[in-house]
Amino acid sequence: MKGDILSFIEEKQKLLQDMIFKGQSDCRITTGIALPLMLINKILTEKKEKIFAGKYALTSSEFEVLISLLALNKRLTPTELYENMIFSSGGMTKILNKLELKKLIKRVDSQQDKRSRFVEITPQGEELAKEAFKEAVAFHVKTFDILDDEEKIFFEKILKKMFIAIMNADV
Questions:
Q1: pTM of the predicted model, to two decimals?
Q2: How far is it between the farthest Cα atoms of the chain?
């Protein structure tokens, strides 16, 4: 099975490279990195989604909201939450509504501005987020266990360098 997947990746890379990037070695090498990276991201996301949905009845998006509230350790407005995350305001509202129904967050009126409300994690939400986070980290430890410590450090440096470049790139 694993050999089949690697063969599939290599076939798709070769097909795309031959069709689109004939003679452009920089594009051929980059495609050789990008395709596996996209597939790894897809598989990691799907597997974490199963962890969150199965044991914790959460979507990845709901988990991300809970872990953000937990990590920042303060009340946030919905605007502050969605500005720092991937969601649209409409998407954020739906997620917050679901989390509130599950009693994992609560909305609190602002004392300074009666039109504004804060989102805060409940003790139940905090406990669930911590447990789900522990399991997600255990999954990542198991996943990256294939790399030795030196490779992990090097890989982390590469990913950080790429992250900075992507954040600064004009599209």
A1: 0.74
A2: 64
